[in-house]
Write a structure and sequence with these properties.
By secondary structure, the protein is mainly alpha-helical. Helix content is 77%, strand content 5%. The chain crosses the membrane at residues 6-26, 38-56, 87-107.
Length: 114
């Protein structure tokens, strides 16, 4: 079992990661304003969300989640293709979900603009 200090560090990590993501997302959102098409802007932002916020469960500690891009990259460098494949599967699944959300947003945008 993980001790209290490790649990606190885990919570602090996710709080800092979430805060950093929100700041980074709004900075990127301001940068892509120049793109002419609404669909292109939102597709880029949806891909960013799927890439950076997809978690994968740690094989070492049950119930602990790690950003999939970080875990997958680290395991790929170490040569553990099975674990990197699990992270890639989670990223692919999150990408499909965000693609569905993106399509629904485009439908909403089209209906509102009429």
């Amino acid at each position: 079992m993980i001790d209290t200090d490790a649990q606190l560090a885990y919570g602090i990590f996710w709080a800092a990661y979430a805060l950093a993501f929100v700041v980074f997302f709004y900075m990127v959102k301001r940068l892509v304003r120049f793109l002419p098409l609404y669909g292109l802007r939102t597709l880029f932002l949806a891909a960013l969300v799927a890439l950076l916020l997809t978690p994968v469960e740690s094989p070492e500690v049950a119930g602990w989640w790690i950003p999939a891009w970080l875990f997958g990259g680290y395991e790929m460098i170490l040569g553990n293709v099975d674990a990197a494949g699990r992270a890639a599967f989670n990223l692919g699944l999150a990408g499909l979900v965000m693609l569905l959300v993106w399509v629904l947003d485009l439908v909403r945008y089209r209906l509102v603009r009429r």
